[in-house]
Specification:
Order of helices and strands: HHHHHHHH
Shape: globular
Structural class: mainly alpha
Number of helices: 8
Radius of gyration: 17 Å
Distance between the termini: 35 Å
Helix content: 55-70%
Oligomer: single chain
Largest sheet: none
Strand content: under 5%
C-alpha cells in the first residue's frame, strides 16, 4: 500500500490534480501495482479525504455558515498550547517508539499542530503494518500534508523524505 501512496504523492504533487479513484485505479494498474494494494491505498486515501473534510469543518470560524452544533464542536476540540496528548496502549503498540518520537519532534518543531496530529494518528492507526515502520509513518505524514494542501517547511520536508540510514551519529 505504501508504494502506491508514494507513487500518487510523487506523480500528483498538487492534491487537486489527483484524479478521482475510478480514474486513478486503471493508471495504477497500468504502472504494475497489485490490485489488492491499489484497493487498500484507494480506501486509505478516501478515508483521508473524509478526515480532511471533517477537519476543515471543525476549524472553520464560528458563524461561517455552520450550525451552532458544529460551532460548539469546534469549541470542544480546541486545544490549549499547554495540553498533553496521552497515547492509548493500542496507539503505543501499533506506532511504536520511533513513530511516537517523530510525532513529538514534529510537534516541537511547530510543524504538526494538534488537529493535524490527530489526523496523522488516525490514518496511521488505519495502516495495516504492525508495528508501523518509521519510513511508512513518514509517508502517512506526507500524505496528510498533501491532502490538506499544506506544504511543510523545507527542513521538515527533508526530515520526512530522509530515511536516516546514511546518517552518521555525532
Amino acid at each position: 500500500m505504501f508504494e502506491v501512496l508514494v507513487f500518487v504523492y510523487e506523480n500528483y504533487w498538487h492534491g487537486e490534480s489527483c484524479p478521482e479513484p475510478a480514474d486513478l485505479q486503471p493508471k495504477l494498474s497500468a504502472v504494475g501495482f497489485d490490485a489488492e494494494e491499489i484497493q487498500d491505498a484507494l480506501t486509505w486515501l478516501h478515508d483521508l479525504s473524509l478526515a480532511a473534510r471533517e477537519q476543515s469543518v471543525a476549524t472553520a470560524p464560528a458563524g461561517a455558515g455552520h450550525s451552532t452544533q458544529e460551532a460548539s464542536r469546534t469549541d470542544a476540540i480546541a486545544q490549549s498550547p499547554h495540553s498533553l496528548r496521552v497515547y492509548t496502549a493500542a496507539e503505543q503498540n501499533h506506532l511504536g517508539a520511533p513513530c511516537l518520537g517523530f510525532v513529538t519532534f514534529l510537534e516541537n518543531a511547530g510543524a504538526l499542530p494538534g488537529p493535524l496530529r490527530e489526523i496523522v494518528l488516525e490514518r496511521a492507526m488505519a495502516a495495516p503494518a504492525y508495528p508501523l515502520a518509521l519510513e511508512d509513518f513518514k509517508v502517512i505524514v506526507l500524505m496528510v500534508f498533501w491532502r490538506l494542501g499544506l506544504e511543510p517547511d523545507a527542513l521538515i520536508l527533508d526530515e520526512l523524505c530522509d530515511d536516516g540510514a546514511s546518517r552518521v551519529a555525532h
